[in-house]
Automatic annotation (TrEMBL):
Signal peptide (from-to): none
Lineage: Bacteria, Pseudomonadati, Bacteroidota, Flavobacteriia, Flavobacteriales
InterPro entries the record matches: KH_dom-like_a/b (IPR015946), OsmC/Ohr_fam (IPR003718), OsmC/Ohrsf (IPR036102)
Transmembrane segments: none
Pfam families: OsmC
Domain of life: Bacteria
Record's protein name: OsmC family peroxiredoxin
Length: 141
């Protein structure tokens, strides 16, 4: 049986929208001043990059916990190239996983990243349909 997500996005005036989420938290979306908005919310395309990093990050965090790995800090940098022609979309995306710590098990952390990228992260799979992905894992001691 398939799962259906149903999101309602309501115009709240100007260029702003309020979008609900299964978490129960609402999200504001707005265009920047250069596009007639007030910049009072998230930009849709940038939100896609947050979704990508968040999806994969949840996988990796879960695996860090499961594998009982020591990590002081972990962040994901997502750098995307936007096409010049309309409709503008991301055609190439670099995802950098940065791990910080004095006792990093690099082999197991790389395995956690690989599992997310290749097997678990559905948003990563969606991005694969339209963008060239480059994955980098960087360890900082």
């Amino acid at each position: 049986m398939s799962t259906t997500n149903h999101i309602t996005t309501k115009w709240v005036g100007g260029m702003a929208f309020e979008s609900n989420n299964p978490s129960g938290l609402d999200l504001r979306i707005d265009a920047g001043p250069e596009s007639g908005g007030e910049g009072s919310g998230y930009r849709p395309k940038a939100l896609m990059l947050s979704a990508l990093a968040g999806c994969s990050g949840l996988d990796v965090a879960s695996l860090i916990k499961k594998m009982k790995l020591k990590v002081d800090d972990f962040q994901i940098e997502t750098i995307a190239n936007l096409t010049d022609e309309h409709p503008k979309y991301y055609d190439a995306v670099t995802v950098e996983y940065h791990f910080h710590g004095k006792e990093l098990d690099e082999k197991k952390l790389q395995r956690a990243v690989d599992l997310s990228v290749e097997k678990y992260c559905g948003v990563m799979e969606m991005f694969r349909q339209f963008a060239k992905l480059e994955i980098k894992t960087i360890f900082h001691s």
